Amino acid sequence: MFYEIRRYQIQPGRRDEWVRYMEDTVIPFQVEKGMSVTASFVDEEDPDGYVWIRRFEDEQERTALYANVYQSDRWRDELDPKVKSFVLADQIKVTRVVPTSKSALR
């Protein structure tokens, strides 16, 4: 099992709007498609920072879920263009982490 910690920089001044879109549209859509979204955060020290975490059992599951979400018509036609209007794509940072043996997230 591993997690993706995804850190985004949002267009200046649009973070509240972004959080609403993520929580009302993007996260529910991804969960409906099988993703496990563990958490969603705003950065307390950066007014345009946003972090979210997803969990995968293994690389095979991640690959299948990515295809299920990102190759869907709704993602390509509706969600992706809107996401791109909020996120500074060149500043996306994705870190894959594995919980330690005593982690509460195992």
UniProtKB/TrEMBL annotation:
<protein>
    <submittedName>
        <fullName>NIPSNAP family protein</fullName>
    </submittedName>
</protein>
<feature type="domain" description="NIPSNAP">
    <location>
        <begin position="3"/>
        <end position="102"/>
    </location>
</feature>
<dbReference type="Pfam" id="PF07978">
    <property type="entry name" value="NIPSNAP"/>
</dbReference>
<dbReference type="InterPro" id="IPR012577">
    <property type="entry name" value="NIPSNAP"/>
</dbReference>
<dbReference type="InterPro" id="IPR011008">
    <property type="entry name" value="Dimeric_a/b-barrel"/>
</dbReference>
